[in-house]
Amino acid sequence: MTQRKQTHVKNLTTVxxxxxxxxxxxxxxxxxxxxxxxxxxxxTTTFGQAEGTFNLTVPLTxxxxxxxxxxxxVIGIKRATNFDEDVSIxxxxxxxxxxxxxxxxxxxxxxTDAKVTFTVAxxxxxxxxxxxVAGHPTKGGDAHVDFRLTVTPKDTFTLTPPRSSTSLKQGxxxxxxxxxxxxxxxxQDVALEFGDLPTGVTRDPQEPVIKNGDSETRIxxxxxxxxxxxxxxxKLTGHPAKGADAISEFKLTVIxx
Length: 257
What we know:
- By secondary structure, the chain is mainly beta.
- It folds into 2 domains: 54-153, Immunoglobulin-like, CATH 2.60.40.10; 157-255, Immunoglobulin-like, CATH 2.60.40.10.
- The protein is 10% helix and 46% strand.
- The protein contains 1 helix and 18 strands.
- The protein has a 5-stranded mixed β-sheet with strand order 2-9-8-4-6, with no helix packed on it. A 5-stranded mixed β-sheet has the order 11-18-17-13-15, with no helix packed on it. Strands 1-3-7-5 form a 4-stranded antiparallel β-sheet, with no helix packed on it.
- The chain is rod-shaped.
- 21% of the residues are buried.
């Protein structure tokens, strides 16, 4: 082989080795743990991990979850030769309003991962965070990796009942509209629940729903001839398919004919 070809092969080998290191770094993402981390002359496996060590793995991209929602994820493990211990997982620097269950999962020696659930409260801080994940083996040093979590604001809506009190005479029927104002990304059906109506007042339908794509729904109120007279404030609750309820108030006045 000529000197020029030898140089070319040598350069190619160097590039491939560097690429392999980048790939391995991307897969393991964090720092290794295990008894092999203290070995001054460690033997390495095919994947570049030292014997007696392990690495934790998490999703390469940020896991996104909305306020008021939950999401399931996986903490994985890559074991090198001669490492078969149980590894307990601990989380730190969790953003305000976020909880992890189980709080301290264990990856058993025969398992490849542990499933965890992130629950985000309605009032949780929004933004992108790096949750610190530590893997503690039975013996040896801990492994560390960052779990990227993005908390997004919840999709919200507001109910808009009639602004002024709806007046009904005893023995009268009247139709009103209950409207909805949606955030840009809120596209769910919303079921309406009324608080207690005055004695002698009924509504139809009993379980109204504002469908996705609709801006309102219409409710027919009927008062009996002997319906209770007076001014009433009726609680109005909107239940979305998921997420937090919206609460408003509907005012009704019943008068004599």
